[in-house]
Amino acid sequence: MSRPKDERNKTVLALTSSALLLPAYQGALADAQPEFTEVGMRYSKYDEDDILSRKAFGGGSERYEIDVAQFHLLAPVADQWSFALDVAWEDMSGASPWFVGESASGSPKVIMSGASIEDTRTEVSGTTRYYFDRGNAGLNYTYSDEDDYTSNAVAVDGAFNSEDGLTTYSAAVSTSHDDIDPTQGTIPTNTLSARKDVNSVWVGVSRIVSKRALVRFGLSYTYRDGFLTDPYKGDDRRPDERKEWAASAGYRHFFDAPNAALHVDYRYFNDDWDVQSHTVDIAWEQNLPQNFRVTPFIRYYTQHEAEFFYNLEDPSYEYFADDYRLSAFGAFSYGLRLRHDFGDWSINLDAERYKTDESWGIYSGEESPGLVDFWRYGIGLDYIFR
To answer: d(Cα 192, Cα 227) in Å, to the nearest integer?
Structure first.
């Protein structure tokens, strides 16, 4: 078996519903206990493009296909509490890049694992939240289990509104402890068993700047410690710690005439592996007659390669990774979300296309032959018990 773990694309794991910014002061809305019980189900399909021209040999050209089913429950409890339960089931199949080798012409080519991946993952997350006059506080526990990876995570978060209700201050702290037990197959792994810990802190502030607009800012720090090497990738050798910083900003503006909202978000990331990235998200949430809402969106991402990323290994390197996720590249994703509310029901449909290329990035570096393109589709159904 051969597949990456730590940098799994979060696109396929997020149970999301687009919320339109209402044209009013909504500073304390999130602090209100839910009035009714809400349940939701969602199915997502993640399908990576086959790797053809960049593959040298080994296995087939097919990459990952992931099917994800999710369940969400949010219910009021007592007078000032709520409880949320999220469950996700993930089924993965396909093959993955094992390492990068040199072709007869001297260019780097991907060597596939030759293994057919069959794996399942189950994640259960429970959150209890307390609401008070000018804020709320929550406690979350998440357990994730798959064939070769187990994770336990705890998070605490809180939000507090200013006296005028226009500014919200937020903070969160989380920790996770992961056990890695690689599946031993025809492809050798570089460890039999290992552990990894991840600790994060985040602070943020949002401000309503007018009856139709708000801005928000956030800062985060994450410290990873333990086995950070990918056990399924050839001679992958990475440092045993990673320090990450991220800064984000967002703007929301509601326009009366078209009855729509503009969402703009930016995120900067930096770490001590010399990885830097910029992400820009733009979305237009358009309300339509008969309780329909359509949201076209586009995202641009660019990344600087890690200081130990190389396509071809040299024994003199202290650290080495040919993982495309640590290379320099640029990426565009674009798609459409559609929502329809009818009675106590809501249905959500979405589709996204993701494309990468080394030349699309603002940073120069070695072009990885393992860059991935994918399609993602989703459908969800929600119900409110009144």
So the answer is: 11
